[in-house]
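thread from #wetlab-drylab

HS: before we spend reagent money on co-crystallization trials with guanosine-5'-triphosphate, can we at least see a predicted complex? here's what I'd submit
DV: go for it
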Amino acid sequence: MPDTNTEKKNVPAPTLELLATLYTLDQLKSYVHDRPQIALAGRSNVGKSSLINALARRKKLAKVSSEPGKTRSVNLFEVKPDGFCLTDLPGYGYARRGHEERRSWAELIQNYLEKTPALRALALLIDCRIPTQESDRVMADFAKAHKLPVIPILTKADKCTLKERSAQMKTWERILGVKPVAVSSVSKLGIDELWARLREAGRIEEVEEAAVTAENAAENIESPASAE
Ligand SMILES: Nc1nc2c(ncn2[C@@H]2O[C@H](COP(=O)(O)OP(=O)(O)OP(=O)(O)O)[C@@H](O)[C@H]2O)c(=O)[nH]1
Ligand SMILES: [Mg+2]
């Protein structure tokens, strides 16, 4: 019998690399990227950027703040060696920002979600301590309407009791029909399980991989590496 524990240890942990930071609709529209993408969406302060750092096992890859409204851009991170991307989005539902700023973020999030054909899944982050919010239900409905698979993630699990957590698990499993993953970016609870779910959802099929390899080869022919 093979020792599965040893096998697991030998699988290299994925790393994350920042590919693009897009602040405006124009930047978003002109950034063409066909790799499969999984978006991290959720209310401001739910812990999206912290989760990117926990997944990457780095402290400052994505900007984090205790002040809601920290992330103002669409940030694409490539998962290596897998090849798909995780996208850190600005948060929604934060009332204290100016109307104009909130409108422009909402527009950016909506455009990204509606106009990214390579979007494979929505990782919907929900604070495990907060009762179900209308804005999260709207996001869940959006995913359903667009037939987008959802990976529900209950964040800040280190801050809630087991009882609270299991009640939230049940609620969101009922709403989405999918079992959530409870995570903590502080204690790292659930990070391995989440990686497994993300890698499954973002897996590049062989046909796609061949296309990407061909695309990369073509790029290298068109623009040989220069040492400027
Ligand atoms: N205890 C605890 N705190 C967390 C956890 N994840 C995030 N936080 C804290 O929550 C606050 C917000 O975290 P961010 O990662 O910036 O949240 P965000 O969802 O990216 O916020 P926006 O960019 O504003 O949308 C920070 O003070 C983090 O330190 C967690 O798992 N446990
Ligand atoms: Mg953020």
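DV: The CA atoms of residues 147 and 193 lie 23 Å apart.
HS: ok that's useful, forwarding to the group
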